[in-house]
Design brief:
Blueprint lengths: L6 H21 L4 H21 L18 E4 L7 E4 L4 E7 L2 E4 L4
Helix pairs in contact: 1-2
Length: 106
C-alpha cells in the first residue's frame, strides 16, 4: 500500500453508516432498505438525508385520524355491501366487493 486507505476500510465504513441510516429510517417509519442504501452509497451525506426525511407514519395534513371506534358494518340502507360507522354516525364511505366508494346519506 502507498499509505492510502484500503478498500476494506471504505466498505466497512459504508456498512456501518448504512446500518446507522437503516435504524434511523426505521425509527421514522420509512423502509429499512432505503436508509441502508442511502447510508452505504452516500456515507455522511446519506445520514443527513435520512435525518431530514419526513416521518412515514405522520398523519396527512387536513385528514383527521380515524375515530377509535370506526368500523365497517353491513350498510343499513341496503344500497351497498358495507358502510363505515365513524364511531358516532354512519358516514358516506361505502364498499362493494372490496371496492371503496362514497355515497352520502340524504
Amino acid at each position: 500500500m502507498n499509505g492510502g486507505i484500503s478498500l476494506g476500510v471504505y466498505l466497512a465504513a459504508g456498512i456501518v453508516l448504512g446500518l446507522i441510516c437503516m435504524v434511523v429510517a426505521m425509527g421514522k417509519g420509512q423502509q429499512a432498505w432505503v436508509g441502508f442504501l442511502l447510508g452505504f452509497f452516500l456515507s455522511c451525506a446519506g445520514l443527513i438525508v435520512v435525518l431530514l426525511m419526513k416521518n412515514g407514519n405522520a398523519p396527512v395534513a387536513g385528514i383527521p385520524p380515524p375515530h377509535p371506534n370506526s368500523q365497517w358494518f353491513p350498510d343499513p340502507t341496503g344500497r351497498h355491501q358495507y358502510r363505515l360507522w365513524d364511531g358516532q354516525r354512519w358516514s358516506g364511505h361505502v364498499s362493494d366487493s372490496g371496492r371503496a366508494g362514497f355515497d352520502p346519506l340524504a
